[in-house]
Amino acid sequence: MAAPLILEDHPARLIAAAWGAHLAHDRRRSVHTVRAYVATAHRLIVFLGQHRGQAVDAALLATVDAGDLRAYLAHRRGEGIENSSAARELSALRGFLKHVVGDVPRLKGPKIKRSAPRPISADDAVALAEDAADAATRPWIAARDFAVLLLLYGAGLRVGEAMGLTGAVLPLGDTIRVTGKRAKVRIVPLLPPVRAAIEQYLALSPWPAAPDMALFRGARGGALSADLVRRAVRGARVRLGLSGRTTPHALRHSFATHLLGRGADLRSLQELLGHASLSSTQIYTSVDAAHLMDVYRNAHPRA
Question: Is residue 249 annotated as a catalytic residue, yes or no?
């Protein structure tokens, strides 16, 4: 039986709490994410206390190596978690150790069974943005990457459309004006969490937001490259054990499929996505039907 998770029984509890405060205030993570990440840090601390046979403090955390993390993941699998959950925990622990000691042991994540391509879940979309941000080298770049990926999922933008936004969209309101293919302009709703993420990036960015300059800037002040966004997503999806089909454009597909699943009609979806014809939007009906068939096969006793 696993040892109970007691948050007051080890010297490192304040270290985990400080990391949680960093996630909440500096990285603007959701309450749910902070709670889950801090709980994972506490699980590692409790495990290390048993595994090493001594009290866990910052000095001991600085000595954690790949073998310790492998032993922790084996312990967690013994408790019944699947590889996808183990990959998420490993990603959280990398962030924790990086924050505490500035160094992360090199360790490949668990292998994930590949299935047919499908839109990623809302939780995975947010986790992807958070993980990409955690891998950034500077706080303002972390805020930028988080804002970009949240925008792709939360507003269904193409990566090129997000890169094409300028300071002219400021100040941000409930909607944003987007220029898509063939210079077609559309108005897309801007969800409060997405707006807050962009504003946090702007507050931290060393580059002023000018109407004639790109909204999202690179490290040297030029327009952010779409290739850098794709690279950030590639790294995050590997660390999280997500499908190789998880790309920036997959976030747009997920936006569309999730809206359709919540009752959005095709015409409205067509406008939100900026499709020239309805036939381009109808692909999402087959995607959603495929997902429903998977649910049916897995849940129906006669399937």
Answer: yes
Q: Sign of dihedral through CA atoms 293, 299, 300, 302?
A: positive
Q: Is 181 in the active site?
A: yes
Distance CA 143, CA 130 (A): 9
* Catalytic, out of 108, 181, 231, 267: 181
Q: Tell me which of 248, 267, 294 is where a domain ends.
A: 248
Residue 93 lies in a domain: yes
25 noted as active-site residue: no
Q: Which of 27, 158, 237, 258 is catalytic?
A: 158
pLDDT at 114: 44
For residue range 230-271, list pLDDT tens digits in order.
999 999 998 888 888 788 888 887 877 766 666 665 566 556
Q: What pLDDT is recorded for position 83?
A: 75
Give the Cα separation of 295 and 230 in Å (integer): 30
Q: Which domain holds residue 82?
A: 13-101
Domain count, the chain: 2
184 included as an active-site residue: no
Reply yes or no on whether 201 is catalytic. Answer: no
Report the alpha-carbon distance of residue 250 to residue 261 in Å, rounded: 16
Active site residue 99: no
Question: Considering 237, 252, 253, 258, which one is annotated as catalytic?
Answer: 252
pLDDT tens figures, 195-239: 999 999 999 999 999 999 999 999 999 999 999 999 999 999 988
pTM over the 0.85 mark: no
Residue 252 has, within 13 A of its CA and on its CB side, a CA count of 19
